[in-house]
Amino acid sequence: VLSQVSYFAGEVDTWQQRPCLVDVPADASSFGTFAMPVPGLGYKVAIDDEIRPFDPTSTDRGISSDREREVVDWVRHHLPGLDPSVTHSAVCAWTSSPDDLFILDRRGDVVIGCGDSGQAFKFLPLFGPLIADLAEGRREDPDAAIFRADRFG
Predict the structure, then answer these.
(1) CA distances from 97 to 7, 25, 37, 74 (A)
(2) Any bridge partners for residue 49, and if so which?
(3) Contact yes or no for 51/4 (Cβ under 8 A)
(4) Residues 24-55 pLDDT 10s
(5) pLDDT tens column, 10-29
(6) Which of 20, 28, 54, 140 is the most buried (most CB within 10 A)?
(7) What stretches of the chain show up as alpha helix (H) in DSSP?
(8) CB of 126 within 8 A of CB of 81?
(9) 0.85 exceeded by the pTM?
(10) How crowded is residue 103: how many other Cβ atoms within 10 Å of its Cβ?
């Protein structure tokens, strides 16, 4: 799917002043909206939902003005200290697995880390060591077994 992120100006002095946020809807129908400081780019905000399906034959990565307005409205409501002027927006593709969970596995000499539904960067502090263990042939963390590819049969 294609998703969209928008960046807002403003100095990000510390993680405490502009923390990473996840705003999950009350009905938990989706992941909601996320926001995080990105050094050199500003404050990144996105609604965790596709703007349109991914078409591998298309090079269109144009932004959705409607989505940008939704994000600006969210910033105005939830982050009143942040300038709601978008500095730029970008469209990116994400991968997902059939059950929307990550795939972390090893097949022979190939280590697989995918199906992240656009969430991987938020989980890199966890994934790094798990993927390193897979790459170096160390015993799998039992809690990570849920992410093996063989769960799909």
Answers:
(1) 27, 22, 27, 28
(2) none
(3) yes
(4) 877 766 668 989 888 888 889 999 888 888 88
(5) 654 554 567 788 888 777 66
(6) 140
(7) 65-78, 120-135
(8) no
(9) no
(10) 19
